[in-house]
Amino acid sequence: MDCPLVFHGTAIHSVGLEQLEILENAALVIDTDGRISAFHKNIAHDDAALRVPGARLHRLRRGDFLVPGFVDTHNHAPQWSMRGLGQGLHILDWLDRVTFPHEARFADPAYARRVYESCVDGFLRQGVTTASYYGSRHSEATQILADVCKAKGQRAFVGKCNMDRNAPYYLRDESAESSLRETEECVRHIKSIDPEGVLVRPVITPRFAICCTPELLKGLGEIAARDPQLAIQTHFHEAEQEINATKELFPGFKSEADLYESYGLMSTRSILAHCTFMNDYDMERVQSLGCGVAHCPISNMTVGGGFMTAPIRQFLRRDIKVGLGTDSGGGFSSSILDNIRLAVIASNAQEVTSKGADKALSLEEVFYLATLGGARVCCLEDEIGNFEVGKQFDAIWVTTEPNEAMTVPEAEDSTRTIFEKFIMTGDDRNMSRVYVKGRLVKGC
Ligand code: GUN
Ligand code: FE
C-alpha cells in the first residue's frame, strides 16, 4: 500500500463465540503493510488520533459499517462453473455423473485460468477474503489457481486434489507415486510465489479416502509430517453412502477419524468438511486431535452431506473449531451470507429434533463462524478474523443503502438491527469495498 489508511465510523466484529462488539465511533489505523496498528474504540470525529501523517482518511456514513472479511473454509474452485447442478443426487452418484466429467475439463490450462479468474473475482465480490480451495487433480491448473489468488489478492489455501482410484481413468491420478510427485510440485510452486505464506499457502488435499489408495494416503501423511506448516483438508463423515463405501474399502477402521489418523492426516492443521454423521467417538477424536470443522449447511442439505445437517451445537460445546464453507459446487451458493442463513435454519431444525437439547445458533454465533471461527479452523486466528491490533486488515465495507433484497433500514433502527437486516437479507450489492491485507480488492 502506498500510504496508511484510517477509517472512522462503525466497526462490528466478534471477540468471542457470543460476543459481538458494535462500536459506533471507532477508528482503525492500517499501516502500509496492511496490519491494524491502532484500534480506537470510541473516538470523536475531530480527534487528533485520526490525523495520521500521510494517511488517507475514510469516514463511514451513518448506517455503513466495517466487518471482518468472510472466511470460506471449504470450497472447490473447479466447481465454480457447475454450481447448482445435480442437487438432488446422493454424493457418489453426483460425483460420477456431474462432478468428475466436469473437473476433467481442468486438464486444459486455458479453461482453468478462465474459470479460476471468474471464481476468485466472484468470491472477492461476495466478501470472501480467505478461502480454502480444492483444485482439480491437475497440477498445472492448481498452480494457475494459486497464481490467480495471488494476483487478485485473495488470501487462500490451495491444494491439488489427490484421487488415484474410484474415479474415471480420464480424471484420476495415474498412480499414487505421480499424485505425490505432483503434490510436491504444487507445494513448491505455491511456496515460490509466496515464500512467507503471507497470502497463498499450500494445503494437502486427499479428496476423501474412497478416492485414495492406502499408499497415497500414507505418502500424503508423510509430506504433512515433514512440513509442520502444511494444512490438510478432506471430506469427513459426510453422508451415509460415503461412510458405507469407506467402511467397505477400509474394513479395519471403525471411524474415519481412526482411518485418517493412522495415515497422519488428523491434526490441528486439518480442516474436515461436513462432519454430519458424527457419533460421540468421532467427536471425541476430532476434539482431542484439535481438527477444525468446515460446516457447509447448504451442501449438507443438497448434495454433500446426505441431506442432513451437522451437530454444530455439540461441536461448540466441546470447543471444537468450527467455520463455514460454501462447498461451492456441492452447495449451490457462493455466498457466505447465504450459508449463515442456512446455518441458522439448520440449527433451528436441530433444536427441534434434539427436543431442545441443542439450542439453535444465534446471530452472534453464526457471524462468529463466518469470521473468527473460520480463522481458527484455518489456524489463522493470530492473523485475521477480527479487528485486533496487530492482525491484518481483511474487511468488508458494508453499505446499507437498500437494494431490492435488503430490508430497508429505518431511522429508529439500532446499529444492531441494521446489522441483522444486512446479515439476513443483504447481498454483495451491500459490500461496496472489500480489503485483503489493506489492499482494495473490490470497489474504488
Ligand atoms: N466428497 C468427495 N468429493 C466431493 C466434492 O467434490 N464435493 C462434496 N461435497 N463432497 C465430496
Ligand atoms: Fe466438498
UniProtKB/TrEMBL annotation:
GO biological process: guanine catabolic process
GO cellular component: cytosol
Cofactor: binding comment: Binds 1 zinc ion per subunit.
Keywords: Hydrolase, Metal-binding, Zinc
Enzyme class: hydrolase
Catalytic activity: guanine + H2O + H(+) = xanthine + NH4(+)
This protein's record includes keyword tRNA processing: no
Pathway connected to this protein: Purine metabolism; guanine degradation; xanthine from guanine: step 1/1
GO molecular function: guanine deaminase activity; zinc ion binding
One Pfam family here: Amidohydro_1
E.C. designation(s): 3.5.4.3
Cofactor: Zn(2+)
Domain (Amidohydrolase-related): residue spans on this chain: 65-441
InterPro entries: Amidohydro-rel (IPR006680), Guanine_deaminase (IPR014311), Metal-dep_hydrolase_composite (IPR011059), Metal_Hydrolase (IPR032466), Metallo-dep_hydrolases (IPR051607)
Function: Catalyzes the hydrolytic deamination of guanine, producing xanthine and ammonia.
Record-stated family: Belongs to the metallo-dependent hydrolases superfamily. ATZ/TRZ family.
NCBIfam families: guan_deamin
Protein name per UniProt: Guanine deaminase
